[in-house]
Structure to design on (364 residues):
């Protein structure tokens, strides 16, 4: 009894000291990685070249002049702020680093993450589209995102208004944590757009906000293009909804194609400019036609019955676009009476899927 106790204390003390040394070495290694990455003119490509040339990250940082007082002070302030806000740094040798992103050449060596780290370790699906999405488009995206979350996938998007918001909200409509990842262009503590502040905090609470940029960084236009690259990179597949041909979402699709990701496109009416992006991807064979949840998951009988119940409403939506169509014409298309069409239109109008315009109806 009197012999074992000092030994146990000695063993416990030494394990504690060993733990502190490991933590110190890891933090020191992270510090030099950040010194390099926060230095002007050094991105992932130059970072890798310098480490290859000088053998280790500390030597590379000193050789590149990244250890000067100004950069050191800036990185120390950043790390202190990250610690205060509960923000994690995830290096590409960590088990938490997104595996799909790690496979990409010149991926970010260090990510900042605010929220649930488990979200970075699960199967992923990226969903993107225009900020000016229709109500029907957002409803469609939300349902798909919800289905993926229900099947254990994490929905990845960029936290913009419109389609991105619908994707995040759809995933978060499921119970549990680690349902969605928001990849942002600024620091993970920078909330943009401000209209999505409540969404941001919900993602931080139940999912993860991810960035390659420094904590506290305010983004500029070029950062959003790089953000789109990593949205495509983290996802195992990409679904693109309504998007103009020259939109950021189409850039994301091009990145996904470059990364050999499977791309799905949700079609829209050709007269709507928001249909040009996904429709062109389908036409060119770059993307597969996405018709709904059944493309990805088997639906149970209850879901099938529910779909059948709304067959006529789906036909109505298919018949509508940006040009107003009268109730009588819709009745002929759907093969129902005008009174039945009116009842269906009331339901769709309440759901925000259609609206009245110039004596007829158009998709909202």
């Amino acid at each position: 009894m009197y012999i074992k106790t000092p030994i146990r204390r000695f063993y416990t003390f030494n394990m504690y000291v060993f733990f502190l040394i490991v933590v110190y070495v890891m933090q020191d290694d992270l510090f030099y990685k950040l010194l390099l990455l926060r230095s002007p003119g050094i991105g992932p490509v130059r970072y890798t070249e310098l480490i290859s040339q000088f053998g280790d990250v500390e030597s590379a940082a000193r050789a590149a002049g990244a250890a000067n007082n100004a950069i050191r002070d800036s990185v120390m302030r950043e790390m202190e702020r990250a610690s205060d806000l509960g923000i994690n740094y995830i290096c590409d040798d960590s088990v938490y680093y997104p595996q799909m992103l790690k496979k990409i050449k010149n991926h970010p060596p260090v990510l900042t993450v605010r929220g649930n780290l488990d979200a970075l370790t699960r199967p992923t699906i990226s969903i993107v589209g225009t900020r000016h999405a229709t109500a029907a488009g957002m409803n469609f995206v939300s349902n798909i995102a919800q289905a993926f979350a229900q099947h254990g996938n994490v929905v990845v998007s960029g936290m913009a208004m419109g389609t991105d918001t619908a994707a995040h909200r759809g995933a978060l409509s499921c119970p549990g944590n680690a349902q969605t990842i928001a990849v942002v262009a600024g620091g993970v503590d920078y909330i943009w757009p401000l209209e999505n502040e409540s969404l941001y905090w919900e993602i931080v609470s139940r999912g993860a906000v991810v960035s390659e940029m420094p904590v506290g960084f305010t983004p500029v236009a070029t950062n959003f293009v790089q953000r789109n690259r990593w949205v495509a990179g983290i996802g195992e597949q990409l679904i693109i909804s309504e998007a103009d041909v020259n939109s950021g979402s189409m850039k994301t699709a091009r990145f996904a194609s470059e990364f050999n990701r499977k791309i799905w496109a949700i079609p829209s009416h050709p007269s709507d400019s928001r249909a040009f992006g996904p429709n062109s991807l389908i036409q060119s064979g770059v993307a597969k036609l996405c018709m709904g949840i059944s493309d990805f998951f088997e639906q149970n009988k209850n879901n099938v019955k529910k779909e059948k119940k709304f067959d006529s409403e789906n036909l109505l939506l298919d018949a509508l676009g940006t040009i107003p169509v009268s109730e009588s014409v819709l009745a002929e298309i759907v093969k129902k009476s005008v009174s039945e069409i009116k009842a269906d239109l009331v339901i769709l109008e309440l759901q925000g899927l259609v609206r009245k315009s110039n004596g007829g109806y158009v998709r909202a």
